[in-house]
Write a structure and sequence with these properties.
- The chain contains 9 helices and 2 strands; from the N terminus they run H-E-E-H-H-H-H-H-H-H-H.
- The protein has 209 residues and is mainly alpha-helical.
- A hairpin with a 2-residue loop joins strand 1 and strand 2.
- Helix 1 packs antiparallel against helix 2.
- The radius of gyration is 20 Å and the shape is globular.
- The two termini are 38 Å apart.
- The C terminus is likely disordered.
C-alpha cells in the first residue's frame, strides 16, 4: 500500500507573509495611540482604550494566523502558541477589565519557549533544530550553541518584559512590545551571523569518478 505524499508548504511572497505576521501588532499599536486617552462605557461598565484595543486584537491575530495557514499550508509552533496565548490572556484582560493579563503574555511566551529549549538541552538535544533545520542547515555543534544562546535570550526577554510592564507606563510597554521585542529578535539573529558561517553545512560536490 502506497503512502500518500506529504504536501509541500506553499510559497507566498515575503512581503505578504511579513504583513500577516507583523500587521496585527502594528494595528494594535496605531489603534492604541489613537484611542489611548479615551474611556468607553459598555453595558454600564467603563473600559480604558487598552482593553478595547486588546479585544479587537484577538480576532485580528486569529484572522491573520488562519490566513497564513491557508496560504502556506502550515504554521510554526510559535505561531500557534502565540495565537492561543493571545486568546487566553487577551480574553482574561477583557473579561476582568484588567490590562495586566495581556501585558504578561510576552513573558509567558518567552518562558515557554526558553523553558522548552532548556529542557531539550538538559536531554542533550537541540529542539530548535527540529523546527528550523530546513531553514538553517547547521552542524550539530552549531545547533547546540545556537539553542543555548536562544534559550538564555528568551529568558532574558521574559525578565525584560516584566520589568517594562511593571515599572513603566502602558504607552511605554505598547511601544516596547511593538518595536522593542521585534528589533531584539531580529538583532539576535543578525549577531549570530558568525555562528551561521562557521557551522553551516556546505553542499558537497559529488565526488568525481
Amino acid at each position: 500500500m502506497k503512502e500518500s505524499p506529504v504536501a509541500e508548504p506553499k510559497k507566498i511572497s515575503p512581503a505578504l507573509k511579513m504583513s500577516l505576521e507583523l500587521g496585527p501588532v502594528l494595528l494594535f499599536f496605531v489603534a492604541y495611540l489613537l484611542l489611548k486617552d479615551r474611556v468607553f462605557t459598555i453595558g454600564g461598565r467603563e473600559y480604558e482604550a487598552f482593553i478595547l484595543v486588546t479585544a479587537g486584537f484577538i480576532p485580528v491575530i486569529l484572522a491573520s494566523t488562519i490566513a497564513l495557514w491557508r496560504l502556506t499550508g502550515k504554521l510554526s509552533k510559535m505561531q500557534v502558541v502565540t495565537a492561543v496565548l493571545v486568546v487566553v490572556f487577551g480574553g482574561l484582560s477583557v473579561y476582568f477589565n484588567d490590562e495586566r493579563f495581556f501585558k504578561m503574555k510576552p513573558t509567558m511566551i518567552y518562558l515557554l519557549f526558553g523553558g522548552a529549549l532548556g529542557l531539550g538541552l538538559l536531554r542533550g538535544q537541540s529542539w530548535l533544530q527540529l523546527v528550523m533545520e530546513e531553514a538553517m542547515p547547521l552542524k550539530q555543534e552549531g545547533w547546540m550553541i545556537l539553542t543555548r544562546r536562544l534559550c538564555f535570550f528568551f529568558l532574558a526577554l521574559a525578565v525584560l518584559n516584566e520589568i517594562i510592564w511593571r515599572g513603566f507606563s502602558t504607552e511605554t510597554w505598547v511601544s516596547f512590545k511593538t518595536f522593542g521585542l521585534t528589533i531584539a529578535v531580529f538583532g539576535f539573529f543578525i549577531t549570530q551571523a558568525k555562528l551561521f558561517e562557521t557551522y553551516a553545512i556546505q553542499d558537497d560536490d559529488t565526488p568525481e569518478a
